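FAQ: What does the model actually see?

It sees only this:
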Amino acid sequence: MIGGVALETIYWYTLLTCAGIAVFLLVFGDIFDFDGPIDPILIVPWLTFTSLFGYLGERLTELDSLFLLISSGAIATVLVFLLNFYVRMPMKNAESTLSASEKTLEGQMAIVVTPIPLKGMGEIQLKSVTGSITRPACFYAPQSSPAKQGEQVLIIEVKERVCYVTPYEGMLKI
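And it is asked to produce this:
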């Protein structure tokens, strides 16, 4: 007991408080961004796990309360480390889509799917490890002949999802 209150009760109210804070952080968690050595976002799950295992230990076993607190804290530390390393960090660094960003398309070769007229748009296809994508395309600079289906083109610039291309001629001739 601490101050006449059973440890089981303290663990229980800490668990309920942390659950409420976790729901709050689920909704508003993107607002908080901390780059220090200990992220405050990790303190809430640590307190939650510590209070959960402390509550269960007090309720189900006859072990010493200090031993339960220390072992609950150790288990919580391991679980929070694993959650941070294997769930939170990959999700934080992940992009929202598998498709390539427009800037990464510049400088790549593509194949003409729908012929590109001298003044107008056609369609090109880019193949990558994640699959293939098609994009509308037009010439970057005036050309003397249209691009036929199956020809290779080089993407020079991408604006508003439209690729500006030039015919690809392979190796430079000297």
